[in-house]
Amino acid sequence: MTFLSKRINNLSESQTIKMAKLGRELSAKGIDVINLSFGEPDFYTPKHVKEAAKQAIDENYSYYTPVSGYPELRKAIAEKLLKENGLSYNFDQIVVSTGAKQSLANVILCLIDPGDEVIVPTPYWVSYSEMIKLAEGETVFINATVEQNFKITAEQLEAAITPKTKLFMFSSPCNPTGSVYTQEELASLAAVFEKYPNIYILSDEIYEHINFVGKHTSIASFDAIKDRVVVVNGFSKSYAMTGWRVGYVAANKEIASACDKLQGQITSGTCSIAQRAALKAYQDGLDTVHEMVAEFKKRRDVVYDLLKEIPGIKVNLPEGAFYFFPEVKSFFGKSADGHTINTAEDLSLYLLNEAHVSTVTGEAFGNEDCIRISYAASEETLKDAVSRIAAALSKLN
User: Is the peptide bond before 123 cis (omega within 30 degrees of 0)?
Assistant: First the structure.
């Protein structure tokens, strides 16, 4: 008998990975499954980025890298943050990690002690609460509904703060909702944080460029709180580099040094070849990014028009990322072909087995009334998927 730690036994399995696994199992049986559960672009990494990786191999970038990343990459990240976001960081305030997920975990483990409270607006990305759990912190959720475009208000934020609050973490554009906080909305949140100088803000901006409503605004752009904001970003979404695993933290020097110290004992530096590819991505501008975003916007509009015609589904228009997060609670209590739908997870499994479309239950993201649908697929595939979903839902009564 294996005696596993309480830490791992208390950890939940990622629902996005679980649904993708179930979809693959059906596909292996010869069933045509449309996978709309995974959160990655369906585009290829840009050619110039791949060429930079090949060149790095030929130039023998095959040795251990500095824990925080190559200085030239960290300088390029600092230049990007200044040019695109108006944020001033020295390169020694940047820590490159093996994906933005590791960056988030580094920050949480460096800031949170047992019993510290972390405020998280819901819906939230699946791993936030599990990372907080690993750090032995306490998660305090603030619920945001579809009626408010899944964005919290300053009043909700202030009501959730207690003497134990240490950290606030959120994403904008948001996974799973696609919601984007405006500059005015961020200003109202920043005004609350000004009153509480012991609270840090962890801003997950990995979907920064997949934004359909204009220029991205970071909460770090508010000078009064900038030193307490930790920005996490990376290359996975904007440059279709999910498998390359390159993310980064931009923070005050003390937090950046702490992340370097922690990472030095866990993974050390990120892959040398991936870092050289990432450097080329930032050096060569945003043309390929803009092309991809334009395609995502077209898909969003197509899927929105189709979803809003399905009786029983309540859906808003996402402003970024590549997800819909429709409310589906009107189907709870209904049945078809021996399947009874009591929860969003039941509905996701029903859609997988009946429509052969893989989605993710909203319970994984902190909202038990919704499901997440990724539109990182071709327009033709998306039309087929929504048609299948509509047909399957119409059988429920």
Answer: yes
Mean per-residue pLDDT for 268-280?
Answer: 98
CA distances for 293 relative to 133, 149, 234, 290, angstroms: 34, 21, 16, 5
DSSP string, 46-86: PHHHHHHHHHHHHTT--SPPPTT--HHHHHHHHHHHHHHH-
Closest Cα to residue 168, out of 105, 216, 228?
Answer: 228
Yes or no: say if 199 and 161 are a contact pair by the CB < 8 Å rule. yes
Q: What is the DSSP letter of 228?
A: G
Alpha-carbon separation of residue 393 from 304, 314, 339, 347, 383 (angstroms) = 17, 13, 12, 9, 15
> Considering Cα of 167, then 156, then 149, then 356, what sign does the dihedral take?
positive
Percent of the chain with pLDDT over 70: 100
Position 12 confidence tier, pLDDT thresholds 50, 70, 90 = confident
- Its pTM stands at 0.94
Helix (H, G, I), strand (E, B) or coil at 95: strand
**48-284 belongs to CATH 3.30.160.270:** no
The SS3 assignment for 330 reads: helix
Amino acid (1-letter code) at residue 390: A
Q: How many CB atoms lie within 10 A of CB 182?
A: 14
Domain coordinates of the chain in residue numbers? Answer: 6-44+288-394, 48-284
CATH among 3.10.50.40, 3.90.1150.10, 3.40.190.10, 1.25.40.10 for 6-44+288-394? 3.90.1150.10
Q: Is pLDDT above 90 for 18?
A: no
The rounded distance, in Å, linking the Cα atoms of 66 and 248 is: 14
- Going by the DSSP 8-state scheme, the letter that residue 150 receives in this structure is T
CB atoms within 10 A of CB 22: 17
Spatial neighbors of 323 by CB under 8 A, at least 6 apart, are: 39, 175, 176, 177, 178, 372, 373, 374, 375
